[in-house]
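Course assignment 3, question 2. Fill in each field.
Student: A.L.
Task: Predict the tertiary structure for the chain below.
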Amino acid sequence: MEQMFLGEFEHTLDDKGRFSIPAKFRARLADGMVVTRVVDACLWVFPMDRWEELAGRVNALPITNAQARDFKRQLFGGAANLDPDKQGRVSLPPKLRDFARIDKQVVVVGTGDHLEIWNPETWRELQARSDADPEGRAEQFASLGI
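Answer field:
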């Protein structure tokens, strides 16, 4: 079974816009990774095998469907390959940093099959809203069949 991405890690960006991928995730990302923006105010990082699987599913969507075309533009237009250096650091492209309002700090969140990269303040606000409404959160999870 492939390693799942679990946990939450805060890292500082250096003056080149780089941060360290958490050490426990580096082996899973050794074959490459892709970062993109999709729906939330964060970035998604996929290991190459998971990215190729997702890309195949998205490319199979009908080009005659406006929602499919919009999703493809969002997913692929904002995507970039990330190549870690010998210290496990990756550089986030400026456009993606701007999208996620990332400046000096990031929060890396494991979400099972991929990572999310958040502006720490945005992440804390999201968590606070969720924590403030446990019943609403339970209803949301129940609607997913969980």
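Instructor remarks: The chain has one domain: 8-119. The radius of gyration is 16 Å.
Grade: pending
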